[in-house]
Amino acid sequence: MQQTLSASKPGNVSGERQAFYKTIDAESMAPLWEVLGDLVPREPRTPCVPCHWPWDAARARLMQAGQLITAAEAERRVLVLENPGLRGASSITHSLYAGLQLLLPGEIAPVHRHTATAVRLIMEGEGAYTSVDGERTPMHVGDFVITPSWTFHDHGNPGKEAVIWFDGLDVPIIKLFDAAFSEHQPASPLPARAEDDSLARYAGNLLPVDYRAGLANPVFRYPYAQTRSTLVRLQASGPLHSAHGIRMRFAHPGTGGWPTPTIGAFMQLLPKGFEGTACRSTDATVYCVVEGRGHSDIGGTRINWGPRDVFMVPSWVDARHTAGEDAVLFSMSDRPAQLALGIWREALQP
Ligand code: 1HN
């Protein structure tokens, strides 16, 4: 039993107190002592449950959506991945939104901007691009792509294949602050910039001589070819972390900090036969399988995963990852926001 700080438990309240609660309820007041234990539990509690979207089933539904609505009509043709513990909230964790987006050949998802930050992981298909404030960047499978807050962005697919990617946004955080704005169409044309200009300018171990780093990340794409070769080199040199294998985080090239202020993103390699130790952390984490097969034990739930599956680990629930073959996992969480607030914690089991 979880110990509670409240003076008395609901259902054990005298008639006199009940009458008092009713009186103050009409005056928009409530007794703290009835809810204190829920407000400050001894350990994190969450309505989120571990959950899993196997790729084949999710992809089939997305292709059905492709028959029902165009990207132009939908603005974004996305199936939202909702945590079963948070139905109706458009959230996969308490703080983050996730979805799978489909762009068919010839389609354009129209330009807009919003205060929410987006991160993307390209799941399937070649030939599409996203553009951020006028700069086009191709999207290749496994690439990690970001759309910083308040930047105009559209997506296009001039290629021949359906393209599907994972979207993560900090929408629930922005909603918490009641700070959501959006705009559709820039007032003046966006500056013309060369394709992948930011990658050349900021992501080659060089920076423009007059660059002063700020919150905004100047890089929009982290190519999978680079990420993967880094992981493979580190696999050879070791050491392996007992819980995380080889786990790297994406970085803002100007500061070394997180790629966005709210959403952190990671890529990890679990070698074939890896049997991780259990670990829990306060940042609920959403995983996308880039390569390989394995399973994760999350609390009492086992999730067997394969390429392009999405699964989720709630806050402060033990997760243990096992890889049946060399596996690469992408993940995202609100860790940068929690670190900025000084509340992030992790507990590794021996
Ligand atoms: C959005 O702008 C995109 O630009 C995807 O691709 C998903 C979910 C909520 C709000 C804005 C996109 C979104 C979104």
Short description:
This protein has 350 residues and is of the alpha+beta class. The chain has eight helices and 22 strands. The protein has one domain (51-348): Sandwich (Jelly Rolls), CATH 2.60.120.10.
Write structural notes for this entry.
With 350 residues, the chain is α+β, with helices and mostly antiparallel strands. The protein has a single domain, classed as Jelly Rolls, CATH 2.60.120.10. Helices cover 19% and strands 30% of the residues. The protein has 8 helices and 22 strands. It has helices at 15-25, 36-39, 55-68, 71-74, 171-176, 197-202, 224-237, 335-341; strands at residues 51-53, 78-80, 97-103, 108-114, 118-124, 129-132, 135-138, 144-147, 153-156, 163-169, 182-183, 221-222, 246-249, 264-270, 279-281, 285-291, 294-298, 301-305, 310-313, 319-323, 327-333, 346-348. The strands form 5 sheets. It has a 6-stranded antiparallel beta sheet. The chain has a 6-stranded antiparallel beta sheet with strand order 2-3-10-5-8-12. A hairpin with a 2-residue loop joins β6 and β7. The protein is globular. Residues 1-8 have low confidence and may be disordered.
Please state the second-level CATH architecture.
Sandwich
Q: Kindly name the structural category.
A: alpha+beta
Straight-line N-to-C gap: 25 Å
As residue ranges, the low-confidence spans are 1-8
Overall geometric form: globular
Taking the sheet with the most strands, its summary is:
6 strands, antiparallel
In the CATH hierarchy, the third-tier topology is known as Jelly Rolls
CATH homologous superfamily classification:
Jelly Rolls
